[in-house]
Every structure is written in structure tokens, then in C-alpha cells.
């Protein structure tokens, strides 16, 4: 996982100041039909997550198994696991969502809290089998 603070120019274009990149090497869950939680960052006390978006380039897939066709993700915290992004399909299967803009409200954290991505694999498939794809997550945190 890479975390990148965006330049002022990039931030203006993306409406975000933080970029997090998730690649297949970050998907380490070997058990089938199991979720994997990836801590993206810790929102400090008083911080506000104002905006979240994503881009897939390309979508996730297991190039050796065309029946592995569901990989969903949510973004949130321990109080609300989909506070920032509701269930979104990231797998190349014809229903993948290549880009999204969060339509959820901004959220101010009263105490320091981890913001997590939770990915889910389909039945009889393991997230660690995914070998293609990149997920770009954009956040505006103030």
C-alpha cells in the first residue's frame, strides 16, 4: 500500500489531498470467502473526512481464474464500517465500478480513529489469488 500526499495542483483536480494505492501484493488473505481489513490511515481527533472517491486502473482480477468475479469493498471505521464508501464492486466482472464519488456526508472524528478498507472475496475464492489491478483511493481530510 502506498500513501501519497497530493500537491496543491493535484488536490485541486481530484478534490482530495491524500491518495492511497492498493495493489494485489496488499491482498494477503489466503482463506476463501473471507474479508481482509486494511488500515488506510488514522484520522486524528477533530479531523474531518470530507470526500472519498476511487478509481480502478485496471479492475482487480485473478488472471488464472475467470470464475473469481466478485471482490467488494467498503471504507469506514469501527463505529460504521461503511461510513465513507458503501459496498462497491472492484472485480473485473462486468459490474465493476471503475470510478466513484462519495455521496456520503462529511464526518468529524471526536477521537483518533483508524479508517479501514474492508475487502470481501466470493465463496471458494481467496483475496490473495488476485494478481491484477490497482485501486486508487482519494480522500480529502482536513
Description:
This protein has 142 residues and is mostly beta strands. The protein has one domain (2-141): Jelly Rolls. It contains 1 helix and 10 strands, in the order E-H-E-E-E-E-E-E-E-E-E. The chain has one helix at 8-14, and strands spanning 2-5, 18-22, 35-43, 48-56, 71-77, 80-89, 99-101, 107-108, 113-121, 135-141. Strands 1, 2, 4, 7, 8 and 10 form a 6-stranded antiparallel beta sheet that branches. Strand 5 (71-77) and strand 6 form a beta hairpin. The mean pLDDT is 95.
Can you give keywords for this protein?
142 residues; single chain; Jelly Rolls; 5% helix; mainly beta; six-stranded antiparallel beta sheet; 46% strand; 1 helix; four-stranded antiparallel beta sheet; globular
Overall pLDDT: 95
What oligomeric state is this? single chain
CATH topology: Jelly Rolls
**How helical, in percent, are the residues?**
under 10%
Q: How many E-type strands?
A: 10
Q: How are helices and strands ordered from N to C?
A: EHEEEEEEEEE
Number of domains as seen in the coordinates:
1
What would CATH call the class? Mainly Beta
Summarize the biggest pleated sheet: 6 strands, antiparallel
Q: How many individual helices?
A: 1
Give the structural class.
Answer: mainly beta
Rg, alpha carbons: 15 Å
Spans where pLDDT lies below 50 across 5 or more residues: none
**Distance separating the two termini:** 22 Å
Shape by Cα distribution: globular
Quick synopsis:
It contains one helix and ten strands, in the order E-H-E-E-E-E-E-E-E-E-E. The protein is mainly beta.
